[in-house]
Amino acid sequence: MEAIIIKDLTKKFGSFTAVDHISFEVGQGEIFGFLGANGAGKTTAMRMLCGLLEPTSGQGTVAGYDIYKQRDLVKQNIGYMSQKFSLYEDLTIKENMRLFGGIYGMSDKEIKMKGEQVIQDLSLQNEQNALVESLPLGIKQKVSFAVSTFHTPKIVFLDEPTGGVDPIARRIFWEMIYEAADRGITAFVTTHYMDEAEYCNRISIMVDGKIEALDTPSNLRKQFGADNLEEVFYTLARKAKRGDD
Ligand SMILES: Nc1ncnc2c1ncn2[C@@H]1O[C@H](COP(=O)(O)OP(=O)(O)OP(=O)(O)O)[C@@H](O)[C@H]1O
């Protein structure tokens, strides 16, 4: 079964079309990069896919649930992580796990077992009782990702998950994404880093609300006669009429 299927998904704010008839499918366990210049409509599209915003028109299912009629089921079957919203800084790692596990409807026993597993996998024995605010950004992001996939969602939405960390920490973070994908979790990722776009199975590039390109990184390089994805991205983004807000 496909993890995400959308057809002609559109969102208007008044007379302004933020997302304009976008269509694609994402497979279970696929790592899908969702790229676009500032203001292209990525956040708006992602909010519709997460069941947070009702589309104006079009169709879609996420994790097998309808994005109009089954928004609560969509929310229960996905994970979400962004650089801006992730962990509570004034709680410890363990307290964050308890809180989010509870929100995701996991039992106390499950939270304890899974929590211990995560602490062990990420070698965080010494940090587990430290307040999140005292941790380095790279560790915070790893913990955020572990928490966002704590309840084994079908899909995890990652909104610029690695902003602000160095390339080595980003590489380690991507290993976590690959491991999750191996366990069958689909990763839907927005990023501004083109090296990260190369790590995706397929990427789409959005310009002014529309998807202008969608394929594997190597096919896109071929299609645009480009040496790298940066060139592909800028060829398309240059056409954009929208800019920063
Ligand atoms: N609630 C809203 N009301 C009116 N316009 C909106 C609203 N939300 C977003 N927009 C507009 O829709 C367009 C797409 O915004 P969106 O945040 O989805 O883009 P984005 O690709 O995520 O950009 P960025 O990378 O800068 O976050 C922008 O022009 C934005 O101003």
TrEMBL record:
Record keywords: ATP-binding, Nucleotide-binding
Pfam families, per database record: ABC_tran
Domain ABC transporter span(s) in chain numbering: 4-233
InterPro entries assigned: AAA+_ATPase, ABC_transporter-like_ATP-bd, P-loop_NTPase
Gene Ontology molecular functions: ATP binding; ATP hydrolysis activity
The organism's place on the tree of life at top rank: Bacteria
SUPFAM superfamilies named among the record's database cross-references: P-loop containing nucleoside triphosphate hydrolases
Name of the protein described by the UniProt record: ABC-2 type transport system ATP-binding protein
Organism encoding this protein: Dysgonomonas macrotermitis
